[in-house]
Amino acid sequence: MSDVKLHDIRKAFGSLEVIKGVDLDIKSGEFVVFVGPSGCGKSTLLRMIAGLDEITSGTLEIGGTRMNDVDPSKRGIAMVFQSYALYPHMTVRENMGFALRFAGLPKAEVEKQVAEAARILELGPLLDRKPKQLSGGQRQRVAIGRAIVRHPNVFLFDEPLSNLDAELRVHMRIEIARLHKTLATTMIYVTHDQVEAMTLADKIVVLRGGLVEQVGSPLELYDDPANLFVAGFIGSPKMNFFKGVVSAVNNGTVSVELPDLGGASVETRLQATDIAVGTAVTVGVRPEHFEDTGSAALNLTIDMLEHLGGETFAYARHGSGDLVIIETKHGRDLKTGDTIQAKFDPARALLFDVGGKRIR
Amino acid sequence: MAVLQAGGGVRRYYNINGWLFVAPALGLIGVFMVYPILWSLWMSFQTGKGLTTKFGGFANIIRLWNDPVFIKALSNTTIFFVIQVPIMLFLALIVAAALNNPKLWGRSFFRTAIFLPCVTSLVAYSVLFKSMFAADGVVNGALQALHIISSPIPWLTDPFWAKVLIIIAITWRWTGYNMIFYLSAMQNIDKSIYEAARIDGISARGRFLYITIPMLKPVILFTMVTSTIGTLQLFDEVYNFTEGKGGPSNETLTLSLYIYNLTFKFMPSFGYAATVSYVIVVMVALLAFLQFYATRERD
Fold first, then answer.
1. Which residue among A310, A324, B145, B176 is least packed, with the fewest CB closer than 10 Å?
2. Measured between CB atoms, does B102 come within 8 Å of chain A?
3. A79–B215 C-beta distance less than 8 A
4. pLDDT per residue as tens, chain A (360 positions)
5. Structural domain harbouring A18
6. Own/partner pairs for A258-264, CB < 8 Å, 24+ apart?
7. Is B201 on the interface with A (CB under 8 A)?
8. Which B residues 181-200 touch A at CB under 8 Å?
């Protein structure tokens, strides 16, 4: 049993509240990613689970036991830090075995555990090196190895890949995913990189300003965001948002006019029945949802192009309006200054009210 | 490929502009350091009193072995070094660790207070110490009031207590100075290393012994070498506390004070004084080498 339950967790520094009541239920074996912009409280939340920061109020349970006041070493957790936090004067072997040796385990047992972790992480040839003789990726693997040898119930990762270059980040991401598959242990992972969140998580927790904005699987968050913030945060490039006004409501079908886009209109079906003509809304369309066909169309002029080979990002606008990002696989022949008609299926457009809440 | 012009190898080393920049400093170092060092080495082979000196070969070195006052000064200096340096550095380490705790109340005040002695006027503090440690001074008064001692300790007149007093004084003066080095080194240690250790279940004592101390090794070595040099050159406190005599009966006489006395107090014996000063040089070099050797990286 290594599920983690957070009930109304709060953290305040003096009068400043940074975590404003978080409820969360993490099931045993789940890979949960906390994601959000800088200062959203994701690292603080992780540090409170680790026991490195005190919980101001609320209850933290790990494996069914209240852990609020339990020492970090007795919570059954292990943590991997952004800065690796390796002991610089110890070899890789000593780094990984330090906790076990200090706990008084027999030397042979420590050796066995270290060897097993080294095998999983392919650290065998590096065991006698010191951290300064390792590359960033190797250091991070040692930090993960140090966590593995303790056989924790819950792994905590605090932006573990942020100090690595892009290529290594992708490589380590795959390694961490593989590790989760092998160990099947609960993992809580903090990142500001939504690609990491999407690729690793069973469940993503989007945080903003110390509050949970939405919890769900990566695709749930992508397909069905609860608000403007989540819609804008998940997905790369970012979702396009257009100002709109409801122009007609007819039997569950809503027509929205987009005044900034030359009066283009979007017709979509909604479950909501209380929406009135004249209501101001925001329409969200993902760049990858623009296609060659579709009943909604925007007349735009291309401002800038990014050819990535496989696909092209076109940055276009209507008149002097805001930039609209369009992702297309057929954009090789596009040129800056071209006028295009960007079409999309209006059923894929998302509507949000003035407060940013999703209208479904 | 034909070489049209020779590379800057020679010119780079003899670039006149570079030499012009360092010349003033080099000149001063030459006149006030290199020349006296070499001259004192030459002098250490001279015998005779005052200005009438003649080359005596190793006569001064032979004289060292037969000079009971030198032997006394050497043994006193060694005692001061062996006892005082470890005590002071240990204290500095403990104080630095305590002052590095962010939860400690009045941290800045204590840091300043503990550092202040090494910038205090030497004469003022010596006078104060002498008065405090006088037979009827505050220290004896306090110890008697607390019933720790029944009769006053003869701090300045007893051979043992006089040494203790000197050790207390220099420890008081230099602990804060060394503490600052440790403190700044401790503050450079990544906090997440300690957090990782906490999660690893390493106790506070374990973190200090197995993380802080090994990571401070270069700084500890530095303070060991500088403190060793400082203690081997000990002069000020002894001179001020004992009116330059190193008393009682040479029990606090140090090598530096002996050199001073040989040169300026007794009938001047410049050659012999230079020989004694080279004893300090040899000791410093030897001890520094030993310390570097003992703390070398083993990998």
1. A310
2. no
3. no
4. 689 999 999 999 999 999 999 999 999 999 999 999 998 999 999 999 999 999 999 999 999 999 999 999 999 999 999 999 999 999 999 999 999 999 999 999 999 999 999 988 888 899 999 999 999 889 999 999 999 998 999 999 999 998 888 888 898 899 899 999 988 999 999 999 888 999 999 999 999 999 999 999 999 999 999 999 999 999 888 999 999 999 988 888 889 998 888 778 888 888 877 888 888 999 999 999 998 888 888 888 999 999 998 899 999 998 888 889 999 988 888 889 889 988 899 888 999 999 999 998
5. 4-233
6. A258/A283, A258/A298, A260/A318, A260/A321, A260/A322, A261/A298, A261/A299, A261/A300, A261/A318, A261/A321, A262/A299, A262/A318, A262/A319, A264/A296, A264/A297, A264/A298, A264/A299
7. yes
8. 190, 192-193, 195-200
Is there a domain that residue B50 lies in?
Answer: no
Write out the two tokens for B244: 């330059």
Task: Find out whether A264 and A299 touch, Cβ atoms under 8 Å.
Answer: yes
* Whether A224 and A77 share a structural domain: yes
Q: Are residues A228 and A271 in the same domain?
A: no
A209 and A122 inside one domain: yes
Same domain, A281 and A222: no
| ipTM associated with this complex | 0.85
My answer on whether B26 and B166 are in the same domain is no
